[in-house]
């Protein structure tokens, strides 16, 4: 696929500013791919969404750069000017996307129960299993090797990549995207203590998972079904790879969660939150809307005020870390000494 700069400018709603005098020639030159500022070549478009890379502008070989009005004077090549260059990059990436379809039609090796309801233009890949009572709406695509359990409902335009397991009675909304090897609706971690010999008795998880519209879920992520009520992932949520969401968790609209973060059971996350990588969130707590948790934060209690929250210690040289750790271990004795000194000073005064 290739497009002219003029066509791209129209598609991403940007203003084309030409570096040379031959406007018509530049506007009609063809673009076939995206690249970084440092590595772009003729026929490619780059973008500048982070001023950290502004020094690469002067040496870029790109045919054009998606750029903000503020940085335009520093751009020596053709520019696609817009207020949000990163959004322009996203729009152009969609235009130039060459990702293949997860499936084309219904493969002859797919196993589909007789009572499954298939909408128009449904595609099901090789060796997938679709069990009884499933409803697949229009334009649903199921990749190879997927398992769709009994009475699952999947909304129109939703795409599942390969080797995904959707357990019974799960509901997935429309226009969702789920990456490979994800598991939705597996049992939550529910066990009753019994006695010393037989320590744990499994509790059947009787709820399900309800996923809203326009939700995206990364590869190898697990979302457990509820113990009694449902686990809820609301509209517009985006989840990265290798995330664990325990039973009865509720995640509010448009919240984003990065890789390897975990949420323990029965916790409620508000709308428009941002959860960075390796964050751990305790169970049975409530987090309000518009919170940001930086990487490796540990959240152990309710958060009632919106804002940015952090915890943990960033990486440091090994010797420095050992010194800091040794000082932390002496904090208790230092606190006692400070109290003793305060008492002595009070007596003297």
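Sequence proposed for the structure above (349 residues):
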């Amino acid at each position: 696929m290739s497009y002219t700069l003029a066509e791209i400018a129209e598609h991403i709603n940007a203003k084309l500013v030409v570096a040379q005098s031959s406007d018509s020639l530049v506007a009609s030159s063809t673009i076939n791919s995206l690249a970084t500022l440092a590595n772009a070549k003729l026929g490619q478009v780059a973008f500048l969404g982070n001023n950290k890379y502004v020094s690469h502008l002067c040496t870029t070989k790109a045919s054009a750069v998606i750029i903000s009005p503020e940085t335009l004077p520093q751009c020596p090549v053709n520019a696609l000017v817009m207020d949000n260059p990163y959004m322009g990059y996203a729009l152009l990436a969609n235009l130039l996307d060459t990702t293949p379809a997860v499936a084309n039609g219904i493969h002859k090796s797919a196993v589909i129960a007789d009572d499954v309801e298939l909408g128009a233009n449904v595609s099901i890949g090789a060796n997938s299993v679709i069990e009884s009572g499933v409803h697949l709406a229009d334009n649903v695509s199921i990749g190879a090797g997927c398992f769709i359990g009994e009475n699952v409902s999947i909304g129109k335009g939703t795409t599942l990549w390969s080797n995904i397991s959707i357990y019974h009675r799960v509901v997935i909304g429309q226009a969702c995207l789920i990456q490979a090897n994800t598991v939705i609706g597996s049992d939550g971690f529910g066990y009753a203590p019994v006695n010393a010999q037989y320590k744990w008795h499994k509790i059947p998880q009787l709820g399900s998972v309800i996923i809203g519209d326009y939700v995206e879920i990364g590869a190898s992520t697990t979302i457990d079904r509820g113990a009694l009520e449902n686990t809820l992932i609301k509209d517009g949520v985006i989840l990265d790879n290798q995330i664990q969401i325990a039973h009865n968790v509720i995640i509010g609209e448009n919240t984003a969660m990065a890789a390897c973060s975990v949420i323990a059971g029965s916790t409620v996350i508000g709308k428009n939150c941002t959860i960075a990588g390796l964050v751990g969130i305790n169970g049975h707590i409530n987090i309000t809307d518009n919170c940001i948790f930086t990487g490796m934060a540990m959240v152990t209690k309710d958060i009632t005020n919106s804002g940015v929250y952090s915890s943990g210690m960033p990486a440091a040289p090994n010797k420095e870390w050992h010194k800091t750790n040794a000082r932390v271990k002496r904090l208790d004795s230092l606190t006692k000494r400070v109290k003793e000194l305060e008492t002595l000073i009070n007596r003297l005064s």
